[in-house]
Amino acid sequence: MCKSLTERLADFVRPYSRGYRLAYLLVSASVVVLEVVYHAISAPLGASAALLLAALFVLLTVAPWLGGAGDLLYVAAFTAAGAIPCSASLAFPALGVFLIAVVWIIHHQTVPASLLLTGYVLLMFLQNGSQPSRILSDVLLSAVTFAIAFTLRNFMDSTERSRRKLEESKMETAKAAATVRAKLAAGLHDTIARDLTRISISLESLAAAHPELSEEIAPIVDLAHVSSRRLRPMIAELNLEAPAPSLRTAVKESTLMLRSRELDLTAHMSDDIDDLLSRQAILTGSLFVREAATNALKYARQGTPVNLFVEVTGGELSLMMVNEIGESPSRDALTGGFGLMNLQSQIEAEGGRLSFVSASGRWIINAAIPNPGKETSDG
Predict the structure, then answer these.
(1) Does residue 316 sit in helix, strand or coil?
(2) In this structure, are residues 238 and 189 in contact, taking their beta carbons and an 8 Å threshold?
(3) Are 216 and 196 found together in one domain?
(4) Are residues 259 and 219 in the same domain?
């Protein structure tokens, strides 16, 4: 699905990250220092050239705060400066153009970067004439820029993939550990503890029915009581180690996970959503959020928004996640290990509903989860 004009404009002027802003500042400062040193050795820098250099320094420093718009502003100023006679004495502002080309290639905007460097070579040809040495120099500088840019892009892409997999692995590990603790605590309580209680009650009933066996049965009953008392703190400790379920926490974890592919998750839900839900609704709702986010991580178009809508009404928790579909699934995204089909089976087994569909270039996943004991709550 195509972005709206407003979304495209927002992307165009979105500031670059802090690392890029630092790189622009260092390059702009280097341009000034190199020009000053160069003209200190050769001819002094004129007043007009100094003013032009200062203007280009400011534009290049500010450019990353304006995103792509700032880049184009600097390129336009550099091009227009060619018409000013004093610009011929400035040798290093072209570094800003090379920096912008590198940044565009890192952002996978190879075609615009190629056009930019081609335009730079043509501009130098028009300004300096057909000097073979100068043309060869400009072409070599462009080739070096390409080599540096693609090397940096491969390195940064590899680093991002590793960071993304590590983040997802941490999330999966935390989920698995919490699940194991919860299942172990539930298993101990629902099986061993319950069986010990039944044994104790049965033996006490047997002793009451057959007083002559009470002396033999009493030690066994006492042993069952002691074992039950020892088991109770273990169950409590497991429950304490496992954090209380929270739908808001699941949303925060999914938001961090999606940011690894520049996907911005926006949750439309009440601030006190956890207070409106039963424990089971929180657990199942959290599972929905994580699995839907994992689906978005794999299929959403990078850099697009992901929206989560949560509402509590009529004794049900309603959830819907919507994301734009990319051209091809991400090969780097880890699977959630559960899957939408399994999620659908679990929700339906609890008396809820789940549906998912691809329509108009979007993935839409809907779920309605029972919220027992909260029928009067609204989201």
Answers:
(1) strand
(2) no
(3) yes
(4) no
Residues 216 and 253 grouped into a single domain = no
For the chain, what is the domain count? 3
Handedness of CA 260, 266, 272, 276 (dihedral sign): negative
Q: Is the pLDDT of residue 332 over 50?
A: no
- 29 and 88 housed in the same domain: yes
In angstroms, the CA 170 to CA 154 distance is: 24
- Residues 59-82: what's their mean pLDDT? 92
| CA separation for the pair 246, 182 (Å, rounded) | 14
Q: How many CB atoms lie within 10 A of CB 364?
A: 16
Model pLDDT for residues 250-298, shown as the tens digit of each residue:
899 888 888 877 889 999 999 899 999 998 899 899 989 988 988 888 8
Cβ pair 358, 300 in contact under 8 A = no
Question: At 376, is the pLDDT very low, low, confident or very high (cuts 50, 70, 90)?
Answer: very low
Per-residue buried b or exposed e for 176-205, using 16+ beta carbons within 10 Å of the residue's own CB: eeeeebbeebeebbeeebeebeebbeebee
Helix/strand/coil for 285: helix
Q: For residue 279, give its domain range.
A: 245-370
- Rounded CA-CA distance 261/293 in Å is 12
Containing 359, the helix (H) or strand (E) segment is strand 353-359
Q: What angle do CA 241, 317, 298 make, to 5 degrees?
A: 75
Cα 235 from Cα 184, distance rounded (Å)? 8
pLDDT of residue 337 exceeding 70, the answer is no
149, 113 contact by CB (below 8 A): yes
What one-character DSSP code corresponds to residue 313?
A: E
Mean pLDDT within 317-329: 87
Structural domain includes residue 164: no
Looking at the whole model, is its pTM more than 0.70?
no
Alpha-carbon span 22 to 44, nearest angstrom: 29
345 and 276: one domain? Answer: yes
Distance CA 240, CA 234 (A): 10
